[in-house]
Design brief:
The structure is a homodimer of 344-residue chains. With 344 residues, the first copy, chain A, is an alpha/beta fold. Helices cover 44% and strands 16% of the residues of chain A. The first copy, chain A, folds into three domains: 9-53; 71-171 and 305-334, Response regulator (Rossmann fold); 173-302, Rossmann fold (3-Layer(aba) Sandwich). In chain A, helix 6 packs parallel to helix 7 (138-149). The model of chain A is unreliable at 1-9 (pLDDT under 50). The structure holds a DNA duplex (16 and 16 nucleotides).
Chain lengths: 344, 344
DNA sequence: TTGAAAGCGCTAACAC
DNA sequence: GTGTTAGCGCTTTCAA
């Protein structure tokens, strides 16, 4: 025999509430989850017991018993870059009212860390998992596919991958690049440049940018790759360091992969005495709040990050209510909008 | 009797791995958690079985059985305001390598939402809970105290509350206000103003600011309260809207509760043709990356958000390893640093 | 409207 | 080094 007390026994349980209220545990459970199924009088006694004991239901036990964790995992490259903040926000707002909790993990744009983070998330048996972008490795992809096969909702965001794992809520990063190049060409710019990381989405933006530039008879854009995870300082350094024919300062129009990079470039260019947009036009992506207020204000590609998070939440909630056999992954293109301001 | 299959039975379990490897479940469990306690040969068979089945341990079941969830909850006012991003970052970085997951919740600076978010977090039985700031209500405080009594590590951050619940990692918001006022006074500024939200920490900054202003014979600073959760646009609006004697545009030195507010004020002031710092000196708080690169660059109070997160993680990990009777809450003052740049 | 029994997938304790 | 047994706190099914 064993007494099994890993911790001091403490912790108020459903049983304690039940005894106090003079009912069985299952009645307490029902009173808490489906109050309508319990007689008002019983319910009142139970509620009093709950209050007097300060009972907080153990959701971990509930999750194990019901095979529903009411948990959603989100894997972002980083939380530092405010660019994903609205997506996290939209997701939490839409899920918390449904009783879901968010488990947050970061990959730091590193493949190994992504796999580890995913394993940690999946072990918590989330009902849904939201990826910013697509997995970087096959290993990660396989884990996600396996999770999906056993009923986890998988949603990729911030992109429209050709070979999605499950559902997708995003926008066409290549089309974004096309649009920015077209605008630069129409404005008569000749020496185009692109500054950003080397993740899939940034690369798609660049390819679209280069593609349209070529189509419109422009010289191939200069591409400056920043080591991920890149920050404003990296963009500034890239601007300052560049010399010779590869110099950013020779560009008359720069597309920055994110607004964060754009602000760095804006600062560096102005400090170098260049006028923006006259000497160098500048376009960012993300429409951070600062874009409206910088001087000059920043022309940027607006992405509705909050709606992306909300849509991901909706897809997960819908999918979870549905038997897996009639679950059809969805593909939602939220589009983007070029917000023309002063910088280009 | 019952067949109990809430979901299609699927899901690889420890038992499946055990059968495949020809051992008992507990041996598999050990091979996964304490490989040294299992014979190399057995371990190899188990590892092969794990790999071939794609087994992902169910951490929820493990958590229930061991009464250790390996989970830490963090409650932030908002993730949108990049001001807390580094804290979240520091916390995740320090915890993920230890196998912990982060459960994220937002209060939106609303008391009711804070209580709800806390209930959701506490139900997950986190081993630690990190608060940005202190609870807004007694209800929330009581919940945290109860959680602490049953062994949860509670850490308040971004402040040094007089009546802490458990451990604290923060800085003295009032002293920050003192320091900024002293600097303004030394620079000969006469008409001081403070712009920020009305949460406890912002208020403490204001009180310190006003206190030192008074001590140095200054007129009482103007205080502009922004409705929480406030953003850059609110600061801009406050600047633009103010008329008459309450006008921010009459101030010759403004202390903004956060860098986000400061950038809004900077933008608005410059757009109004005022020179910063000549006409209006400006100091922020947070030392966001942008502070180095804005034009003019922003004088600000640097807070080491990442270290705050890391320190909170350390306190939790230490506390969790220790029997609760010799747990003594700690109070860590990480201090702050006035970073003098161009704006003031 | 309420309850009894069984069991979710795992780990702690104690044997051997 | 490995296995047996019991049980974590809850929800499910089925019966009354």
């Amino acid at each position: 025999m064993s007494s099994y007390t890993p911790c001091p026994p403490s912790q108020t349980r459903l049983l304690d509430v039940a005894e106090r209220a003079g009912v069985s545990v299952i009645t307490v459970s029902r009173a808490l989850r489906t109050p309508a199924k319990v007689a008002p009088e019983t319910r009142a006694r139970i509620e009093a017991a709950v209050a007097s004991l300060g009972y907080v239901p153990n959701l971990v036990a509930g999750a194990l018993a019901s095979a529903r964790t009411r948990t959603v995992g989100i894997l972002v490259p980083t939380v530092s870059s405010s660019i994903f903040a609205t997506t996290i926000n939209g997701l939490t707002d839409a899920l918390e009212s449904e009783g879901y909790s968010i488990v947050l993990a970061q990959s730091g744009y590193e493949a190994a860390r992504e796999v580890a983070a995913l394993a940690a998330l999946l072990g918590r048996r989330p009902e849904g998992i939201v990826m910013v972008g697509s997995p970087m490795t096959d290993a990660a992809r396989i884990m996600l596919e396996a999770a999906q096969d056993r009923g986890t909702m998988v949603v990729e965001t911030w992109d429209l991958p050709e070979r999605p794992i499950g559902s997708v809520v995003g926008f066409d990063n290549r089309a974004v690049g096309n649009a920015v190049a077209a605008r630069f060409a129409a404005a008569g710019h000749q020496r185009l440049a692109f500054v950003g990381g080397d993740d899939d989405r940034a690369s798609a933006r660049f390819h679209g940018f280069a593609e349209t530039a070529a189509r419109l008879g422009q010289a191939p854009p200069l591409r400056i790759q920043l080591p991920a995870p890149s920050a404003m300082a990296d963009a500034v350094a890239a601007y300052n360091a560049a010399h010779g024919p590869e110099s950013l300062s020779r560009a008359d129009a720069i597309f920055a992969a994110t607004d964060v990079h754009a602000f760095g470039l804006l600062s560096a260019a102005l400090r170098h005495g260049r006028r923006v947009p006259e000497d160098t036009a500048l376009v960012g992506l993300g429409d951070l709040e600062m874009a409206r207020f910088s001087i000059p204000s920043l022309t940027t590609v607006r992405i509705d990050g909050a709606r992306m998070g909300q849509a991901a939440a909706s897809l997960i909630l819908e999918g979870v209510r549905r038997p897996s056999h009639d679950y059809a992954p969805k593909r939602i293109d939220l589009g983007f909008e070029l917000i023309v301001r002063e910088s280009g």
